[in-house]
């Protein structure tokens, strides 16, 4: 091989490597842009709405004394419709956004996909659907803790139910923050029902 050819070959190899590097970089940018677009579309897409109802109180109505700390503190009835076919489990969070720090009254999860109702008193009487777990509420106890606001203005109690595409690998007794972190990428549908309770005296 003559000296001129020996000089040309390394140049060609370098040119080929440079071209391949540019192609790889451009392909990476295109794939990243497509992934970001898909993620943004999925994030913008609204969840399916679960229809939540209760025989214990009406949506926007007063919660009877029985389901509060002034009564027997039984958990209310909840039942739901319009469940996505891909649902593997349900999770429930009951909170009081009118209280400081958005007080948590009830956390339940791994409610089986076959369940479409929680009976009255299910939490207090260990009658949750088989396989369900309950978390720790802001009273520092596991299970349901009914409305118990200070005397004065009425408080709103939000029961929010999530249909999930997984069963959660969480032990019983987790805090609300742990549950919400675990479900963040697995919500297929959600819905809520709101009840009101007001105490005139302590």
Notes on the protein architecture:
The protein contains two helices and nine strands. The protein is α+β, with helices and mostly antiparallel strands. The chain has two domains: 1-45; 48-197, Phosphatidylethanolamine-binding Protein (Alpha-Beta Complex), CATH 3.90.280. The strands form two sheets. It has a six-stranded mixed beta sheet, with helices on one face. A three-stranded antiparallel beta sheet has the order 2-3-6, with no helix packed on it. Strand 4 (89-96) and strand 5 form a beta hairpin. It starts with a helix and ends in a 5-residue tail after the last strand.
In short:
The chain has 202 residues and is of the alpha+beta class.
List the SSEs and their pairings:
Blueprint: H1 3-44, E1 48-49, E2 51-53, E3 78-81, E4 89-96, E5 103-112, E6 117-118, E7 133-134, E8 155-164, H2 176-183, E9 187-197
Parallel strand pairs: 1-9
Antiparallel strand pairs: 2-3, 3-6, 4-5, 4-8, 5-7, 8-9
């Amino acid at each position: 091989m003559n000296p001129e050819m020996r000089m040309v070959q390394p140049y060609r190899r370098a040119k080929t490597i440079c071209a391949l590097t540019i192609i790889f970089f451009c392909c990476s940018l295109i794939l990243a842009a497509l992934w970001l677009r898909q993620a943004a579309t999925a994030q913008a897409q609204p969840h399916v709405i679960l229809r939540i109802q209760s025989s214990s109180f009406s949506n926007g109505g007063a919660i009877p004394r029985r389901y509060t700390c002034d009564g027997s503190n039984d958990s209310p009835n909840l039942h739901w419709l319009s469940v996505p076919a891909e649902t593997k489990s349900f999770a429930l969070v009951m909170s009081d956004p009118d209280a400081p720090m958005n007080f948590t009254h009830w956390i339940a999860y791994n409610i089986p996909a076959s369940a479409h109702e929680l009976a009255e008193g299910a939490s207090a009487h260990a009658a949750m659907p088989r396989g369900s777990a309950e978390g720790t509420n802001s009273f520092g106890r596991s299970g349901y803790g009914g409305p118990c606001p200070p005397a004065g203005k009425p408080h709103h109690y939000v029961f929010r139910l999530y249909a999930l595409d997984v069963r959660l690998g969480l032990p019983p007794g987790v805090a609300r923050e742990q549950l919400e972190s675990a479900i963040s990428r697995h919500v297929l549908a959600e819905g809520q029902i709101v009840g009101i309770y007001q105490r005139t005296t302590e």
